[in-house]
Amino acid sequence: MLATLFDFPFEDRRKLTRWSDVATAAPESGIIESEDQRREELIECLTTFSELFHERQKNPGENDLITMLAHGEATKDLPERPFELLGNIILLIVGGNDTTRNSITGGVLALNENPAEYDKLRDNPALISSMVPEIIRWQTPLAHMRRRALQDTELNGQKIKEGDKVVMWYVSGNRDEEAIERPYDFIIDRAKPRQHLSFGFGIHRCMGNRLAEMQLRIVWEEILKRFETVEVVGEPERIFSSFVKGYSKLPVVLHPKK
After folding, report:
1. pTM of this prediction?
2. What CATH number should be reported for the domain holding residue 114?
3. Which residue of 70, 124, 143, 156 has the lowest C-beta tally within 10 Å?
């Protein structure tokens, strides 16, 4: 999907997920061994997209994201600001990789941990439409974002000074008993399933939220057509990160429909 959105050379598509993993990984994660390795791989990413950017300036594609950036009034000069170019590319790559991928895995795990909900889904596949946002809430694939306060303020009695770093824990908000009924339960037919913070809020709301929901909806439509059950047969291995709430491994057995 990322390769399609970027019109990236399809034979090199695995580089996109690799760069996404490298961008958010700590040296203790097993993905990279040092900050120097991260820097080298991200420079490779920058070089690749700089070349692609210049190519699309000369030969525009058909509505791919790189062509849009290369010809957008506010973004066409990004190669002159290479680290800003890299930041925008990494934002798009991470936003389209870690989030959806870990929500797919998290959905499989949640259904196995809540077999009554899996029964509901098999009995009524139309529930996919409400299950998808519930998976995204339940998983909260990006656990938090950090911002810096632009002015002194007070929030719920807590004084925040200009320049203070403020962490917004989306994963905590998605378990808020005052906002969500039975927030610790995985319920695929909630009345208001899109009432969650996994996509952020306001002007910072994820611009790819509808695409993410569509991807998850389609993957579950296809899973239900082909498999009676996706059975989890071992403990999940979680990645070493306080930012990306994800998995490095989830062993499953696929049971085809008879």
Report:
1. 0.89
2. 1.10.630.10
3. 156
